[in-house]
């Protein structure tokens, strides 16, 4: 592999305290040097890429994706998912365990890593289940899963209802030093809910999911985690009430982090009224005041990272044949007939996110809610810290040569039919975005390069 010299871009590396014009040299899979722009010569055989006008970030890391492999190739595979990740600017993704079979045994984790090594896209980090089969009854072998490559534990998709079992899980997680990522949902409160319990649910005539379904579980789990010695990570936080609890725990010095998904910092439940199944996820899009709280948390540090919760689904799982015509996308749906309202709960939860996350995060930057360095912390440095990837999330010499080169001003329109992901379930189709991945580099090798019509 030839050395790679990225010349004259704006390097944004908050872990190294750098934001300015620099050259970056990658050699032998590692960052070899970072020096003021125009000063680095590099070896004679280096490939030189002019990065004028571009941003050079530590490779973006998504701590929460669903790649559906093994088990659901009609939705996504490790191959398609890791290519979609690279196209979205990500150099590593943490793949949740709700596959079939569930990733609750070392041989499953090793199988996923072998497929990922052959895929040639972003890196894959297996997330181990907390409980066997995600059944919430028996804990996995934490040490064996960590030895097989897991760097996070989660039953995501399913909450862990048994408080005593969760307490024991934290004690095991403390033994291996990795965090437990928590899907905070009290299913008794969710019931048959399709969207946030608010004016939109009432107008459409569908059952709603109250704020308490999330907040009550966050309160319980923060109490359980408090004296465990293990880090707790709150996945896809969606409510102002939940975030307030996380803020209070952090103020007490608790070992807790949390993430927000692009859909939760961009949309409120009005989008559900327009897009129906393509804006249906767990937790749901919330009220306008929740959206404002999530945005404030991203800006002031209460929220530690952006994670997509990329959740690909085929149109049959989303019941698009039935519900697509009822949700026109460009305007709100009419109130649903009682039979439709009841059946909508059966449409699968989740939206794809890998190929839109960066553009949506850059919206926050362009709108001056966060600066570029904060975005790099939310999408690279902090996810690396959560997953304890000491040689990622930064571009200091010696770090892995995982780099996201970004064109912050590239204007484009989200076209789901062009996604490299196998699935199209997104409420962002047709949205105009500014900024996208230009070049994605993993281990010193270019795994994605944009061909964009300017
Ligand atoms: Zn979840």
CATH superfamily of the largest domain: Metal-dependent hydrolases
Mean pLDDT: 97
Please report which band the strand proportion falls in: under 5%, 5-15%, 15-25%, 25-35%, 35-45% or over 45%.
15-25%
Over all CA atoms, what is the radius of gyration?
Answer: 21 Å
User: What ligands does this structure carry?
Assistant: zinc ion
The rounded distance between the terminal residues' Cα atoms is: 30 Å
- Outline the low-pLDDT stretches: none
Structural class: alpha/beta
Largest sheet: 8 strands, mixed
Helical content, roughly?
A: 25-40%
CATH class of the largest domain: Alpha Beta
Number of domains: 2
Question: How many strand segments?
Answer: 17
- Quote the CATH topology of the largest domain: TIM Barrel
- Per CATH, the architecture of the largest domain is Alpha-Beta Barrel
Plain-language structure description:
- With 454 residues, the chain is an alpha/beta fold.
- It has two domains: 4-56 and 398-449, Urease, subunit C, domain 1, CATH 2.30.40.10; 59-386, Alpha-Beta Barrel (TIM Barrel), CATH 3.20.20.140.
- It contains 15 helices and 17 strands.
- Strands 1, 2, 3, 4, 5, 15, 16 and 17 form an eight-stranded mixed sheet that branches. It has a four-stranded parallel sheet with strand order 9-12-13-14.
- The longest helix is centred in the C-terminal third of the chain and has 15 residues, at 372-386.
- The chain starts with a strand and ends in a 5-residue tail after the last strand.
- The model has no long low-confidence stretch (mean pLDDT 97).
- Bound molecules: zinc ion.
């Amino acid at each position: 592999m030839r050395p790679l010299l990225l010349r004259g871009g704006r390097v944004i590396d908050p872990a190294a305290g750098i934001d300015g014009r620099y050259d970056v040299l990658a050699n032998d899979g590692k960052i070899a040097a970072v020096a003021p722009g125009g000063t680095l010569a590099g070896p004679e055989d280096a490939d030189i890429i002019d990065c004028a006008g571009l941003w050079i970030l530590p490779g973006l890391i998504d701590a929460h994706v669903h790649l559906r492999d093994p088990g659901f190739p009609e939705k996504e595979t490790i191959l398609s998912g890791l290519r979609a990740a690279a196209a979205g600017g990500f150099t590593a993704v943490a793949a949740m365990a709700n596959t079939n079979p569930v990733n609750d045994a070392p041989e499953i984790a090793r199988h996923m890593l072998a497929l990922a090594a052959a895929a040639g896209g972003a890196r894959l980090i297996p997330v181990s289940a907390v409980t066997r089969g995600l059944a919430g009854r028996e804990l996995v072998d934490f040490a064996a899963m960590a030895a097989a490559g897991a760097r996070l534990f989660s039953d995501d998709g399913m909450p862990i209802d048994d408080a005593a079992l969760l307490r024991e899980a934290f004690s095991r997680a403390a033994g291996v030093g990795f965090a437990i990522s928590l899907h905070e949902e009290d299913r008794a409160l969710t019931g048959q809910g399709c969207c946030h319990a608010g004016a939109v649910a009432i107008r459409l005539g569908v059952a709603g999911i109250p704020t308490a379904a999330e907040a009550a579980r966050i309160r319980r789990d923060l109490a359980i985690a408090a004296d465990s010695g293990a880090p707790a990570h709150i996945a896809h936080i969606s409510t102002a009430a939940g975030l307030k609890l996380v803020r209070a725990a952090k103020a007490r010095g608790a070992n807790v982090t949390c993430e927000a998904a692009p859909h939760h910092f961009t949309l409120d439940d009005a989008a559900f009224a327009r897009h129906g199944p393509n804006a249906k996820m767990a937790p749901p899009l919330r009220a306008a005041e929740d959206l404002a709280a999530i945005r404030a948390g991203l800006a002031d540090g209460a929220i530690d990272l952006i994670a997509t919760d990329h959740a690909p689904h085929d149109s049959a799982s989303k019941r698009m044949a039935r519900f697509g015509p009822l949700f026109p996308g460009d305007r709100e749906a009419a109130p649903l007939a009682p039979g439709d309202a009841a059946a909508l709960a059966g449409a699968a939860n989740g939206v794809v996110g890998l190929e839109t996350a960066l553009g949506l995060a850059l919206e926050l930057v362009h709108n001056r809610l966060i600066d570029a360095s904060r975005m790099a912390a939310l999408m690279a440095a902090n996810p690396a810290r959560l997953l304890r990837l000491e040689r990622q999330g930064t571009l200091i010499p010696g770090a892995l040569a995982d780099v996201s080169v970004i064109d912050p001003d590239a204007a484009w329109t989200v076209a789901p039919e062009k996604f490299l992901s196998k699935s199209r379930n997104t409420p962002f189709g047709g949205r105009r975005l500014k900024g996208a991945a230009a070049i994605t580099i993993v281990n010193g090798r270019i795994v994605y390069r944009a061909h964009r019509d300017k």
